[in-house]
Amino acid sequence: MLELPLKTDFTGKVVVVTGAGGVLCGDMARAFAQAGAKVAALDLNEDKVKKLAEELKNEGFVCEGYAANVLEAEQVKAVHARILEDLGKCDILINGAGGNNKRATTDNEYQHEAKAGQTTFFDLDTEGVDFVFRLNFQGTLIPTQIFAQDMVEKQSGNILNISSMNAYIPLTKIPAYSGAKAAVSNFTQWLATHFAGSKIRCNAIAPGFLVSNQNRALLFDENGQPTARSQKILAGTPAGRFVESNELLGGVFFLCDDRAASAVTGVVLPIDAGFSAYSGV
Ligand code: NAD
Fold first, then answer.
1. CB of 265 closer than 8 Å to CB of 201
2. Is the CB of 212 under 6 A from ligand 1?
3. Which residues of 14-35 are buried (b: 16+ CB within 10 A; e: fewer)?
4. pLDDT tens, per residue, the chain with 281 residues
5. Rounded to the nearest whole angstrom, what is the distance from the C-alpha of residue 5 to the centroid of ligand 1?
6. Residues near 205 by Cβ (< 8 Å), separated by ≥ 6?
7. Whether 168 is catalytic
8. Which of 21, 96, 229, 246 has the greatest count of CB atoms below 10 A from its CB?
9. Is beta strand 157-162 parallel, antiparallel or unpaired with respect to 38-43?
10. What are the residue boundaries of the structural domains of the chain, listed by start?
11. Which of 271, 163, 166 is nearest to 208 (CA)?
12. Is residue 88 within 6 Å of ligand 1 at its C-beta?
């Protein structure tokens, strides 16, 4: 009998998910809880993670919600101490907190098309750029510094970072977010190497284009038709469609499964309906 590689059973594992108040990582937190894990859901937004934890507990799963800013090491350390008491040492860390900021975004795709009144490259706010780099890079580094200590003690564990399509080739308008996610992909390889001897694996997913409440207005007009940017995205995606949030979960489970992915470390897995594979021709 062959032992089948995918078990998707995380019974008893302590899974810490940052950014769990958000769309994607809220789903990841829920998925791990449903697969038997004890989930610690962290977010700046306490209400959202408390609500998620309450819902999951009512359904018979194990989840606690904690408020913390991933950029404030003392806050993350305090939450770590509470998680040790409530759930135990961290087995899996999902570094989900991240995102872009309007202050680091240009209105125009190309300088030669700039119109009066638009925010161009020359108007980008360096503090906004710093904010995006700090959120995505330090927001991955700081929780890893704190939770990977549990994994070193156990000599086992998994770290999963969230990169993006723009890490491979930058997207127009969002230079800081693109650069910061490229740094997250690079850091994933660095961590994989650094912790290999401690039997900790570190990987990332690079989600493709998803429709969320936040970007719906950018992707579709008031009649529900794809905007010009959306049409470019769909034309650049061989499958000709957006990715659903629940389509990330198979890749997340695979990378965090010590049996299925025992020799997989330092990879950034695109889950993108083919976007990163297609040259456009
Ligand atoms: P989201 O904006 O819905 O959620 C992000 C969550 O992170 C929010 O609940 C927010 O409160 C929290 N957060 C922000 N700053 C924080 C901080 N300093 N400390 C703690 N929590 C903080 O985002 P999402 O769409 O669910 O994205 C999750 C991750 O996936 C991010 O890293 C994002 O960059 C990445 N990503 C998203 C997409 C997409 O299309 N949605 C695509 C590729 C990558």
1. yes
2. yes
3. bbbbbbbbbebbbbbbbbbbbb
4. 766 667 678 999 999 999 999 999 999 999 999 999 999 999 999 999 999 999 999 999 999 999 999 999 999 999 999 999 999 999 999 999 999 999 999 999 999 999 999 999 999 999 999 999 999 999 999 999 999 999 999 999 999 999 999 999 999 999 999 999 999 999 999 999 999 999 999 999 999 999 987 788 778 999 989 999 899 999 999 999 999 999 999 999 999 999 999 999 999 999 999 999 999 99
5. 30
6. 160, 161, 162, 163, 248, 251, 252, 255, 268, 269, 270, 271
7. no
8. 96
9. unpaired
10. 14-208+244-269, 212-242
11. 271
12. no
Q: Which homologous superfamily is 14-208+244-269 in?
A: NAD(P)-binding Rossmann-like Domain (3.40.50.720)
- Measured from the CB, is residue 251 less than 6 Å from ligand 1? no
Question: How many angstroms does the Cα of residue 25 sit away from the middle of ligand 1?
Answer: 7
Predicted TM-score (pTM) of the model is 0.96
Give percent helix, percent strand, percent coil of the chain, each to the nearest 5.
45, 15, 40
**CB contact burial 61-87 (16+ within 10 A = b; e otherwise):** bbbbbbbbbbbebebbeebbeebeeeb
Tell how far the Cα of 20 is from the centroid of ligand 1, in angstroms. 8
